[in-house]
């Protein structure tokens, strides 16, 4: 017997969105499973149906979120979404897209004086790190989430993360980056900068001895000097990086946060969801449930694939009923697909039987406007 997709406890999305104790919803999952659409639909429903002042933050640079909300563009500042139905609820919806360099610049401006900030901005290593350094995007996503949370302006913050392996970086990057910035090598680079007098590189050489020659050969003298200058300029910010990362990490572990996994009934997507669910359990982070997108359901579920196929073949033998036979064949193919999808989804349910789940029927077309988001939100909530 094929396991039912409803074998898991039912996910009550409206209960999460309406709960004033829930202030952050983090949507995560593999790429191409409708995660951005789900995040936008949840944010819209929170504003329209539950009267919450909501902001949705996307870390994915794709423009789908802006397009579906009727905005020409998104940037690092929340933009209010107009034309939604909040007259009776009193809610609001705002949207934004992470700009990691601007967020890093804002952190520097907030924690240093203007002269020091100008020195940091001019440093080549900072310019590279703030734009392309591995993990910077995820770290700055945590910074931005922490900023939005600290401002206290929002009843609910909905976060649309990158595909799940990158979303794992969303959890890991703050610790990695703070370890990098607090690392022994960078501290050794910083010590000569504090001493003054002699040139940066000569003091580094004196500190490292033969090891510095290896470092110079690998990194190059100019990069080493840029790196040293960067570390020296950021000296006053070291504690802040770690402190803020740890604070936001604790927020993600708190009851005010709800992680929502998004998957499609495909082996890779379900595998990614299971991997992420395991990590959340290890990190003691609150997993609210699974949204299984793009599920196919036969219109007549009691007619299975075998009977439908047999009926189609019989009509073909009789002749004169090709239209009906084609419909039965299409139904048989859809029924087989539904069975395969249930089997795939059951892999997650069997591994995490206590995790609530809800399935969303595949839509006839891609969601590209607010009406489409409302449809998805209603489907997720089973309204």
Query: How many beta-strand runs?
Result: 8
Number of helices: 17
Identify low-pLDDT runs. 1-5, 192-219
Rounded to an integer in angstroms, the radius of gyration calculated over CA atoms is 26 Å
Average pLDDT confidence is 81
Describe the main β-sheet briefly. Answer: 8 strands, mixed
Helix content: 55-70%
Quick structural overview:
With 383 residues, this protein is of the alpha/beta class. The chain has 17 helices and 8 strands.
Task: Please tell me about this protein's structure.
The chain has 383 residues and is of the alpha/beta class. The chain is 58% helix and 13% strand. The chain contains 17 helices and 8 strands. The chain has helices at 13-18, 35-50, 64-68, 100-111, 114-122, 124-132, 136-151, 164-181, 184-195, 200-208, 210-219, 221-233, 238-253, 267-282, 305-318, 322-351, 370-381, and strands at 24-29, 53-58, 79-80, 92-97, 156-163, 257-263, 287-295, 357-361. Strands 3-4-2-5-1-6-7-8 form an 8-stranded mixed β-sheet, with helices on both faces. Strand 6, helix 14 and strand 7 form a beta-alpha-beta unit. Helix 10 crosses helix 11. The protein is elongated. The two termini are 29 Å apart.
């Amino acid at each position: 017997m094929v396991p039912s997709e409803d074998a898991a406890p039912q996910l009550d999305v409206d209960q999460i969105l309406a709960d004033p104790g829930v202030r952050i919803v983090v949507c995560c999952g593999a790429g191409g499973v409708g995660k951005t659409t789900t995040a936008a639909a949840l944010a819209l429903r929170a504003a329209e149906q539950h009267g919450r002042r909501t902001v949705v933050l996307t870390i994915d640079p794709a423009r789908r979120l802006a397009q579906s909300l009727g905005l020409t563009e998104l940037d690092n500042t929340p933009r209010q979404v107009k034309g939604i139905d909040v007259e009776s609820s009193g809610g609001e919806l705002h949207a934004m897209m992470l700009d990691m360099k601007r967020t890093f610049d804002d952190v520097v401006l907030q924690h240093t004086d203007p002269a020091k900030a100008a020195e940091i901005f001019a440093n080549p290593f900072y310019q590279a790190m703030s734009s392309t350094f591995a993990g910077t995007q995820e770290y700055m996503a945590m910074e931005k989430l922490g900023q939005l949370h600290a401002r206290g302006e929002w009843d609910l913050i909905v976060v649309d993360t990158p595909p799940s392996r990158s979303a794992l970086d969303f959890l890991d990057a703050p610790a990695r980056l703070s370890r990098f910035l607090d690392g022994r090598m960078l501290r050794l680079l910083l010590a000569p900068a504090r001493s003054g007098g002699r040139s940066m590189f000569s003091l580094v050489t004196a500190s490292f001895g033969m090891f510095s020659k290896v470092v110079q050969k690998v990194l190059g003298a100019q990069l080493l000097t840029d790196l040293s200058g960067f570390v020296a300029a950021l000296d006053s910010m070291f504690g802040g990086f770690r402190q803020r990362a740890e604070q936001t990490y604790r927020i993600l572990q708190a009851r005010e946060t709800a992680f929502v996994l998004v998957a499609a009934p495909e082996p890779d997507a379900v595998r990614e969801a299971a991997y992420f669910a395991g990590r959340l359990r290890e990190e003691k982070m609150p997993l609210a449930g699974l949204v299984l997108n793009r599920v196919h359901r036969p219109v007549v579920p009691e007619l299975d694939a075998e009977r439908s196929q047999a009926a189609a073949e019989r009509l073909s033998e009789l002749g004169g009923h090709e239209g009906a036979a084609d419909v039965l064949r299409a139904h048989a193919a859809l029924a087989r697909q539904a069975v395969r999808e249930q089997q795939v989804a059951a892999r997650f349910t069997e591994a995490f039987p206590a995790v609530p789940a809800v399935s969303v029927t595949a839509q006839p077309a891609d969601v590209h406007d607010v009406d489409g988001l409302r449809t998805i939100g209603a489907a997720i909530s089973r309204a």
